[in-house]
Amino acid sequence: MRLFRKAGNTLHILSFPGEEVEKGEYLLIRDRKADKAMIAQVIDIEFANVPGVMEELLRSSDAGDSLSGEDEDPLGITSHILYIQDARLLICKIHGTIMNGELRQENSWLPSRMNSTICKLPTESLVEMADMDGGLPIRLGETQDSFPLAVDALQLDGKLNIITGKKGTGKSHLSKLLVLSLIDYGAVVVILDINGEYTNLGYGKDGSKNRYHGKIRILTPGRSFKVTLYQTELYVIMRTLTYALGLPGTSAREFRQIWRFLEKRGRLTLHGLGEAIQNWKCNQHVKDALYSRYSALLNSGFFTDNMAEATDFEGLLRKAERGGGGAIVIDLSGTSPSDRRMGVRPGEASGRPLAVEDKGRLPLR
Questions:
Q1: Confidence of residue 160 (pLDDT cuts 50, 70, 90)
Q2: CA distance 182 to 333
Q3: How would residue 261 be classed by pLDDT, with cut points 50, 70 and 90?
Q4: How far is CA 76 from the centre of its chain?
Q5: Would you list the DSSP string of 323-365?
Q6: 290: pLDDT strictly greater than 90
Q7: What is the pLDDT of residues 20-32, one digit of tens each?
Q8: How many Å apart are CA 35 and CA 42, to the nearest integer?
Q9: Contact 168, 140 (CB under 8 A)
């Protein structure tokens, strides 16, 4: 294999017949003079666009009449032409650089074409370089080269982790595997389930209850999941109104004053909020904007004035922690798109984000 060119974080590498490389494999481009190496992953494979190859392919096709006679190739050019015709171009994404034995997130340097060697990088070596071994492994499966792949549960703690892929490639399956494995390690997981895919986590394929059944709680907005305004912090409501419901800045300032007015007088209820908006002295356009957003909150089913039917989300989190881990699934599959955009955050709505403690368990969310 030879290095052809580099563009941004993409490498183009020429691969010749006999060099079997598959999409998804990792390559190590080692520059001997620079004493550095670049790690890249093959994301696509194409035929190399060599000038004259198209003409040779057309000449060698069976479309025309064949000529009788003997083929003369005293210089052995034909074998070279056939060799070039099967050359491939590997489109690779750069993932990092090895310098002084350390893996770094760097792709700004340019490996030498003449002084670089390219070889396959086994997954086992890549995992060692990335220092992915941890004390709480979650087994995901095997790689193309039959290496058991696992991630450290601690690496998921307090970070933004995104699973991407085409439809049907197993994103939801991987998510469920992570959730159940985290529960095994004593983590508390909160799931906003848009499509109702996680409501059966507590059941096996045959419909029978599995060992996670008692650790998974399903909440449905409007039925088994409601909160009062007293349980909800002002900044959570303001985020909902501003980002999800598009409340203008002027109206948002008025809403903040109304909220504090009701809170000071002990009248912070849905009914009290609606009356206060109607009677508030402000511009009519502002009042209309406030009341339309109030109606959206009222009709969402997330909120109630009845403390008896309000969900003690903090209590559910504590119970899951005491029980050695669990999952709270908020089933949003039956809600309208506008209600989903409201994005009520249960941990914030309870007034206290779930703390992360280092006690050999993972109270994650």
A1: confident
A2: 24
A3: very high
A4: 53
A5: TT-EEEEEE-TTS-HHHHHH---HHHHTTSPPP---SSS----
A6: yes
A7: 899 989 999 999 8
A8: 23
A9: no
In this prediction the pTM is 0.71
Q: Give dist(CA 42, CA 203) in Å, integer.
A: 38
Q: Spell out the SS3 assignment of 226-254.
A: CECHHHCCHHHHHHHHHHHCCCCHHHHHH
Q: How far, in Å, are 39, 100, 210, 346 from residue 36 at the CA level?
A: 10, 8, 50, 48
**Which residues sit opposite 189 in a β-bridge?**
327
Query: What six digits make up the tokens of 316?
Result: 């559910």
Q: DSSP secondary-structure letter at 24? A: T
- 3-class DSSP assignment, residue 321: helix
H or E element that contains 319:
helix 313-322
Q: Which alpha helices (H) appear in 13-164, and where do they start and end?
A: 53-59, 77-85, 123-130
45 pLDDT band, cuts 50/70/90, is very high
The separation between the first and the last C-alpha atoms of the chain, rounded to the nearest angstrom, is 45
Q: CA–CA separation, 120 vs 19, rounded Å?
A: 10
pLDDT per residue over 200-256, tens digit each?
A: 999 998 999 999 999 999 999 888 999 999 888 898 899 889 988 899 999 999 999
Strand partners, 191: 329
